[in-house]
């Protein structure tokens, strides 16, 4: 009888561990990222106030890549981001934005040498752009207007070329067209919250 109890306990622990790992690595990132209580929507075409000239668009539009090294979704997205940079770097400036509190120095190893990486102190840039999750792309025109903010792709691994939202937005901007409207698949954030507050919101929703 004791052996049966021990075996049942061991099986429960193993299954519990498997379920926990599946949630931690996969399932939680299928769900939309909880929206912070202080979130404010920043509409497309809004004039932005980017006071730091080191990160503001200059002669070329700029793509701001919100990256969090501890987030699996951010790491899966690196290959796609690097590919976009190689394709458009002559026409678009790229900058990686790491939220304050993340491991800034570990972020460097994921990207090509020479790419500008900035720490978003107090998440001021995220609030200015209306970003609360990662990975997210923000495209700003040379007149400092928000052109696109949203997901790179509807697929977690950016494997669906038909929904390469950020890439299509870049093509649209470079063709002098109006900002495209992709719908909720591009604007509903999936992945990791920029701060621990997102995780607290998720726990409260259970």
Shape descriptor: globular
Gyration radius over CA:
19 Å
Beta-strand proportion: 15-25%
How many helix segments? Answer: 7
The structure class reads alpha/beta
Strand order of the largest sheet: 3-2-1-5-6
Q: Low-confidence parts, pLDDT < 50 over ≥5 residues?
A: 13-29, 197-206
Total DSSP E strands? 7
- Please summarize the sheet with the most strands: 5 strands, mixed
Mean pLDDT: 81
Helix content, binned percent: 25-40%
Distance between the termini: 36 Å
Q: What is the element string, with H for helices and E for strands?
A: HEHEHEHEEEHHEH
Question: Would you mind describing this structure in some detail?
Answer:
With 206 residues, the protein is an alpha/beta fold. It is built from seven helices and seven strands. It has helices at 2-25, 72-88, 104-108, 124-129, 165-174, 184-187, 196-205; strands at residues 62-66, 93-99, 116-120, 133-134, 136-140, 146-150, 192-193. It has a five-stranded mixed sheet with strand order 3-2-1-5-6. It is globular, with a radius of gyration of 19 Å. Residues 13-29 and 197-206 have low confidence and may be disordered.
